[in-house]
Structures are given as structure tokens and as C-alpha cells.
Amino acid sequence: MAFVPVYILILGFTIIVDYLAGIYIEKSVGKKRKLLLICSLIANIGILAIFKYYNFINDNISFLATSVNLQNHIPYLNILLPIGLSFHTFQAMSYTIEVYRGNQKAEKHFGIYSLYVMFYPQLVAGPIERPQNILPQLHMKHQFSYANMSEGLKQMAWGFFKKLVVADRLSIYVDTVYPNPELHNGSTVVLSSIFFAIQIYCDFSGYSDIAIGAARTMGFDLMTNFKRPYFAKSISEFWGRWHISLSTWFRDYLYIPLGGNRVKISRRFLNLFIVFIISGLWHGASYNFIIWGALHGFYQIIGLIIKRPLNVFEDKLPRFGLMTFNLFKGIFVFLIVTFAWIFFRANTLSDSFQLISNLKTFGQMPFLGNGVNQMGHCVIAIILLFTIEYFMEFKPSFKMMDNKYPIVRYASVVGLLFIILIFGVFNGGQFIYFQF
After folding, report:
1. Shortest CA distance to 126 belongs to which of 334, 345, 337, 432?
2. What is the pLDDT of residue 365?
3. What is the CA 256 to chain-centroid distance, rounded?
4. I need a surface site. Which of 33, 77, 314, 375 has the fewest CB within 10 A?
5. Exposure string (b/e) for 331-355, b if CB count within 10 Å is 16 or more?
6. Highest mean pLDDT among 174-178, 290-294, 372-376
7. Which burial class, exposed, middle or buried, applies to 134 when counting CB atoms under 10 A from its CB (0-12, 13-18, 19+)?
8. pTM higher than 0.70 for the full model?
9. What are the residues whose beta carbons fall under 8 Å from the beta carbon of 311, sequence distance 6 or more?
10. Active centre residues (catalytic)
11. If DSSP codes are grouped into helix, strand and coil, which group holds residue 424?
């Protein structure tokens, strides 16, 4: 509404449609239930298609028409994409699907259902919640809890660290290289791509931590959306740790209905490829995102093909050899994920190929801002991030901010806040995933 006030009607329309659809789906039987579900899905997907994909589709129609010497007279729409449209659309769709499947009772209280769609911490960028988790909590009476307030604020602080100290610091370098690919060589492309891989993780997981923490302060538990994905040793494990609410959404509502793992292997490969192509499109109306999704679909297929031989090979390795091999796998997964991020971050498809072409040439690596100091801040922030995440991953019992010794607990909290205030980049930058 801050940008286009009338856009609140989009939320109002989808809320009314899905609220009524849920009630009548529960009351109906046979084909009528399926028809009501289809109508609800068409309403939700239709709005998403108009605001997010209309002009993209029109561009492709124009290209095809021009190739056969015809003109496309379909007008273009001069509209802004509502912030968070993809997120609350998918959350609304999960409600009607779960009611249809009999896994969720239809919500009769209009205000409660509206709050399920519009719950402010996660409205614009997730996590994409399921009705079974959120709706029962909205019916509970929530009393003030010091434990919830403490845990929530600490998780928010960790999210602000990832966003302001790491992501926004790295963006200074990334935002200089990617918009000007012709000015940079392989050295800067490699460094900026690694920086972007960490930037988008800290930006989005930072938002998720802030959202989950904000909800926790009020007594609400949202689902975990990230589990340190760059510690993954396979691409399937990566997607089990990255944007979990979206990957499980596609698994439950697209991959499994397509046949999932229950079909022959060739069809399973096709199902995976379809899911990741659609996941790419979900992120944006651009061939860059389609290629990004296709690459991850390809990675998944190759991962399945080599899974059994790798397991046989690993079983024969001694302990030290296995540790070394796991480290190699982790680095390899990070590198191929980072390569795919080039298409995700580049402004155009031609920019993507220019950046990849530049990987052949290496030269001097320019520094920005205060020169070495600026780069030093980036490196220190990354080292601090992964050091803390290492303890979270491999030493889960070691929690500085939950330490039983008050002096350690208070020092770690104050230290984190100090780092945020002194080294945070307060430039008013939006969260990356607001554009989706």
C-alpha cells in the first residue's frame, strides 16, 4: 500500500476467494470439491500471472510474431509487482489444497483466516507456512513469556548481523561488478560471484531469522527456513537446507503429485526437471531464472545418477579419507551452486554469458571504497559468519548466547549488537527476496 494503495484489494480478493473456497470445499463431495479447488487455484495463479508474467509472456509473443513477419497488438501493462505476492499466494494455495486433501479443517473465522495470510513477520518474504502450523496458534491465547522474548530478540539480532554486517557489506562489491560485466575480468567475476552466493544466503536467511524471531517474541513458532546450506555435501542436501518452506512446498504440491519417486527413473528425472524449471519461474519472469532452475534440475539428476557409485566408494574409504572427501564434496557443491547464481544475479541473459566468458581472463582485482580495508571487512565478516555457523552445525551444544554462565551470555549478546552497530551497512537496502 505504501507504493500503490489500491494493491490492498489484491490481498482482499484472494482472502475472500480462498476463505469461501475452503468452507465450500469442506462441505462438498465428488467433482464439486475438485471444481472449487480449481477455481481457487485459478484465482490465485491468475493474479500472480497477470502481475508477474503478463509482460514476459507478451515479450515472447512479440518475438514469435516478429519472426514470422507479424505484429503483436496485445498491449503491455505498466504495473508494479506487489511486494511478497509470490509468498502469500503460495501460502493461500497451501490452505485450500490442505482443506481439499482433508488435512486441515476449513477456517470459519474470517479474521483468523485473514491473519493466516497477512501475518506480518512473514507476509512479504516467508517462510511460506502451512495452515496446520499457523492456524491453531492463531486460536490460542498468548501470554507474555520472557523466554520467548529473549529467544526471539536473539534470533532477530543474528538475522540483523547476517543482513547488515555480511550481506549488505558484500553487496557493495557485487553491485559494482554485476551491472558492468564488460569492465571486469575473471578474477573479479569469481570473487563477486562467491560474494553474491554468501550475500543472498545472509540476506534471505537473515530475513527469515528476523521474521521467525519477531513471531517468537509474540509466542508464535514459524518453521525453520534455512539450515546452513553451504555445509551441504550434495545438491539434494543443499535443497534440504535452503529455503526449506519453498522446496517442501514444491515437493508436496508439485513433485509428489507428478509421481515423485514412485515412477520409473526416467520419469523421476523429468519430474525433478519440471519442478526446478517452475521454481526458477517462481523467482522471476526471465530466462535467467529459467536457466538457473534448469541448472539445479540438471544438478539433481546428475546427483541421483552418481549417488550409488559414490556411496560404494565412500564405504571403502578410511576415516581420514572420508573426512577429506566430504570436504571436497562440500566445496564442489558450493562452486556449482555459485556458478548457477551468476544467472540469478545478472541483470540480463547477455550479461550472464558475458560474465561467464570473462572467467577465461584473469588480471588485477580492483578494490572498492577504502581499498584493502573495505575488502578486509568483507573477509572478516565471512570468516566470523562461517566460524559461528561451524559451531552451530558441528557443536550444537555450544551456544554462546544461551551459555549457562551469565557473563558469557551477556558478553556474546552485547558483542553481537556492537558488531551490528559499528560494522553494519545502514544504506536502506531492501531485502533481495522482496522482489519475488
Report:
1. 432
2. 61
3. 20
4. 77
5. eebbebbbebbbbbbbeeeebbebb
6. 290-294
7. buried
8. yes
9. none
10. 283
11. coil
